[in-house]
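Session log. Operator J.P. requested a structure for one protein chain; no other inputs attached. Running the standard single-chain path with token output.
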Amino acid sequence: MEKYNAFVEKYRGLIMDALDYIWKNPESGYREWKTHTYLAQIFEKLGYAITPAGNVPGFVADVDTGREGPTVAVFAEMDALIIPEHPESDPQTGAVHACGHCSQCAALVGIAAALKEPGALDGLCGKIRLAAVPAEELIEIEYRLQLRKEGIIKYLGGKPEFLYRGLLDGVDLCFMVHGLSDRAPHFANCTGGSNGLVAKTITFEGLSSHAGGAPDKGINALYAANLALNAINALRETFRDEDHIRVHPIITAGGASVNAIPDKVTVESYIRGANMTAVASASEKVSRACAGCAAAMGAKVTINDLPGYFPRNYPMNFVEVFQDAAPLCGVNFVYQPHVWIAGCSDLGDMCAVMPSLHPSIAGGAGKVHGADYTVADRESACMDSAKLQVQALALLLGENAQRARDIVANYVPMFATNEEYFAYVDGLNMDKQTVFYDEKGNVTLDFHS
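Structure written below.
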């Protein structure tokens, strides 16, 4: 198995060049065209036939061993965050790779190059689908909603969008390796999983009037929103600890003039949780609180729910592959099954339909998603990552791909088909007025999705 390390090592220069280029050219989700073009050109020079996503950035490219077996997808995320205060953010857009996705892409270049080396596929069965995917970070929601309105995308995250577009048809299992910050060199880990989420946009509508001279003639949408935020806080003790519920609303628009009663206030929030049943329950509680508080003030409220990402849960026999691959490339791999991540990723959507894994590897420094983040240990972030993934692929697809076959055979996904998954996700959407008044002053609340 040492040959795989040598194959990756041969392309050290190409890998580091990719890291530098993508770090210096950060782009947020569904805007990653420079990154797409750069990676696509590298893949084509290596001899790959790429299949572009079409009118969004990203592509897939297949490696066929020529022998029957499962298809494994390997993801690298192309998108950056928006953190204008980061000293190396793009001065025009504020974008910066403060989550280390640039190192994922660099590692994917190394994997792609290594798999083209003579002898790389000897003894392997099945196919490998290398995927450069957009839009993992769930940001710039308004922009993505506009893309959806224009028919450019259907789903906010790049991986479910790829699934919808058929770019993952035939894939049996998948993985990716994310970055870790402030860890010892040559260290990798895998936790027990992470939360899923629903994204909410809540618009309170009141009636404007003179704030000093005629406040009695107005309906204060800001007060309705403040009541709702307090009601949401009061709900927190109703959330079960094991469901890992996180609700973190912010007011994004709270009035235009201090001399006018605010007539429109917008609140945005995620509802995160360890399973989608708990997420849906918490989301309905939040909707009920917002509708009730709007009614208390005589206001109206429109609630827009958007499906975010599903929880991540990993099969143990998939974790074991990486545990066995790590020593082959000098990586210390630690499995932490009792550690639960409250954040979210669209790899969770892959977990809902196929066995998936999301280990992480050292290399970053500073706060992830923070203004001081950087890829400090390039060796761990890129070289170790590429070697670990190639070694894992060799273990998965070697010996008649028995380990990959076992993972697929023993995994029970949340949904038996992609169509069932899409139907469930689409059912999470809601966009409606939730408070109604009749001519007698009676109030009706309709906050159910």
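Operator note: The domain at 2-194+311-414 is CATH 3.40.630.10 (Aminopeptidase).
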